[in-house]
Amino acid sequence: MNDDLDDIFEESEGGTDLTEEEKEGLIPSYISTRGELNQAEQQNIVKGELWAFTKKRNPLDIKFLNDLHKKMYGEVWEWAGSYRKTARNIGIDAYRIPTELKQLVDDTQYQLDHATYPPDELAARFHHRLVFIHPFPNGNGRHSRLATDILLHFMDQERFTWGAGDITRKGDVRSRYIAALQAADNHDYGLLIEFVRSE
Ligand SMILES: Nc1ncnc2c1ncn2[C@@H]1O[C@H](COP(=O)(O)OP(=O)(O)OP(=O)(O)O)[C@@H](O)[C@H]1O
Ligand SMILES: [Mg+2]
Question: pTM (2 decimals)?
Fold first, then answer.
């Protein structure tokens, strides 16, 4: 696992024009730069969040996770809510996504029912495993962080702070987050559990 995807994302910030490949499946025709795309996605995500928190929802359900991605990105991307079909630097082989997701929601439901872990650890492990599967072509970080906050809400816990800064941009918060995920790749969850409630 590495964060090459991150570097690609960071190199093409703000005013940079999107490539033809990056525009594949893009719905609003006015969008041509990275900045316009970020803004459109952010507006869509706000609506997705409002929908998600209108009531208590159990995110440990494959259909819910797909629907959530669609609610977050469906106004911007045609492929919102559909799994990727090709490999990424992060993530398992694409053909394994449905089975691994099923295993994840079943395992996490079991952990929840049997109080296997304290709530924060259960949620942090869920987050890491979901983003490790990397089900969608893009938007997995934001989707799996929101899904985790929904799980916390379902367990009557406060949402995570996720470092309380801008986790989507290069900087201290992002670096600590990625380092914590990499430790979790090696089954060490301590950094991630600490990070998710840090201020
Ligand atoms: N080593 C790693 N192990 C597991 N997950 C990782 C690792 N490195 C990065 N990630 C995850 O991949 C995400 C990036 O994937 P993707 O581009 O699909 O999501 P995004 O929502 O577009 O990005 P962002 O998180 O910047 O908003 C990161 O946010 C992080 O959650
Ligand atoms: Mg991305």
Answer: 0.93
